[in-house]
Amino acid sequence: MEVSDYDWRLYRSLLPKWQERYMAKLNKEYIALLSENDNPSTNFWKLKKRIRQDAKSPGVAIDIRRSDFFVEILSLMNAGVINREDLADFSKEVTNWIDQILEWND
Fold first, then answer.
1. How far is Cα 45 from Cα 65, in angstroms, rounded to an integer?
2. Contact 105/18 with Cβ under 8 angstroms?
3. How far lies 32's CA from each of 19, 29, 47, 93, in Å?
4. Cα 92 to Cα 102: distance, rounded to the nearest angstrom
5. CB neighbour list of residue 36: distance below 8 Å, 6 or more residues apart
6. What pLDDT score does 64 carry?
7. Taking a C-beta distance cutoff of 8 angstroms, is the pair 58, 81 a contact?
8. CA contacts within 13 A on the Cβ side of 91
9. Where does residue 33 rank: exposed (0-12), middle (13-18), buried (19+ CB within 10 A)?
10. I need a surface site. Which of 18, 24, 29, 89 has the fewest CB within 10 A?
11. Where are the domains of the chain?
12. Helix ranges, the chain (H)
């Protein structure tokens, strides 16, 4: 299925906002991790490991390719970066496709 110009432009404008929101959530989790009652060095190494894992998330870094639009949307959803409501402004073609995929996964 081909992505319309409208959906592609919308995706490109929303993706940075979604990523910023996701990284703000991660930052709060990092603060909580650093505030744990373990040794400071233990907290530091836990944080380093966590950041290394999170850096692979599409909420932090993602290659933007029009041909991968649907795969990218699904990966953002699977990683908890976005939810179905974040796609409300997309065309019916996109939202119907996503709804079908979500139904298949239930």
1. 34
2. no
3. 20, 5, 10, 40
4. 15
5. 43, 46
6. 93
7. yes
8. 13
9. middle
10. 24
11. 5-105
12. 5-34, 40-54, 69-78, 92-105
**Nearest Cα residue to 70 out of 19, 21, 7, 20:** 7
Decide if 86 contacts 10 (C-beta within 8 A).
no
Please tell me the distance from the alpha carbon of residue 32 to that of residue 15, in angstroms, as a whole number.
26
Report pTM.
0.88
Going residue by residue through the chain, which has 106 residues, state the pLDDT in tens, using 9 for 90 and above.
Answer: 799 999 999 999 999 999 999 999 999 999 999 999 999 999 999 999 999 999 999 999 999 999 999 999 999 999 999 999 999 999 999 999 999 988 886 6
- CB neighbour burial string for 43-55, b if at least 16 within 10 angstroms, e if fewer: beeebeeeeeebe
The residue to which tokens 């850096």 are assigned: 55
